[in-house]
């Protein structure tokens, strides 16, 4: 997974990017070796996630035809726009926060165009097209989740001048990237950072090592996250509707309140937490 980043070390070709940091994808430019690597990544991830991914992710994945090679974003857009009103836009890699939020607020999801190297099969620092596409696009077929991400983008643009970026990054991290859901199917994953990665999918659901707590916005905004290893804390939402609802109120007062309080450490238990047990397991001590 990826996390903190410095502009000087970004991978990808930014020289052709437009003012909004989008580029032309060029689906014909991927090599046979890249298509083959994509098929291997796709086959492994899609086979391991069936018992763990939430229904919305599985349904979305079934609607994208992307098993046979690096996908053409335009082909997926034809379906995605009808399903949820989202459009994928190609980007060279990580883009500036404000620009990223602008895209989300306009229901445009930035997808990195380059694919990892074979030696990065299991682990990658920055998002590549496999992470962005396989991890994020299935959930964007779901209108409720799509509403959450759009509203997140809108709120983020309003809250940036308030110095809210660290808080906004935590919220994105613990929901869009590492979120769990506990609905009629039991504990499941919806976060792209988990579902596009090798070992974290079973770990997030079954391991007794990490802490799982009921999602609560202020708790989440206060909690520092790990970029170097599996998460020590996961937040569990009750439904995608509940997640989308969180973003409907004005968050500026809450953000100011959270900014005045100390940050919380991943892996710790705090007063007011509602613990959620792993699948078939006990609560962590
Ligand atoms: N750019 N391509 C890309 N992908 C991201 O996930 C991303 C980004 N720019 C900024 C950003 N994320 C952060 O603002 C959020 O993760 C909070
Ligand atoms: Fe991501």
Automatic annotation (TrEMBL):
The keyword Oxidoreductase applies. Residues 1-285 form the Biopterin-dependent aromatic amino acid hydroxylase family profile domain. Its EC number is 1.14.16.1. One of its GO terms (molecular function) is iron ion binding. Its cofactor is Fe(2+). Residues 266-285 are annotated as: Disordered. It catalyses: (6R)-L-erythro-5,6,7,8-tetrahydrobiopterin + L-phenylalanine + O2 = (4aS,6R)-4a-hydroxy-L-erythro-5,6,7,8-tetrahydrobiopterin + L-tyrosine. It holds the Pfam family Biopterin_H. One of its GO terms (biological process) is L-phenylalanine catabolic process. Pathway: Amino-acid degradation; L-phenylalanine degradation; acetoacetate and fumarate from L-phenylalanine: step 1/6. CDD domains: pro_PheOH. It comes from the Bacteria. Signal peptide: none annotated. Fe cation binds at residues 131, 136, 177. SUPFAM superfamilies: Aromatic aminoacid monoxygenases, catalytic and oligomerization domains (SSF56534). InterPro entries: ArAA_hydroxylase, ArAA_hydroxylase_Fe/CU_BS, ArAA_hydroxylase_sf, Aro-AA_hydroxylase_C_sf, Aromatic-AA_hydroxylase_C, Phe-4-hydroxylase_mono. Keywords: Iron, Metal-binding, Monooxygenase, Oxidoreductase, Phenylalanine catabolism. It is an enzyme of class 1 (oxidoreductase). This is Phenylalanine-4-hydroxylase. It comes from Solimonas marina.
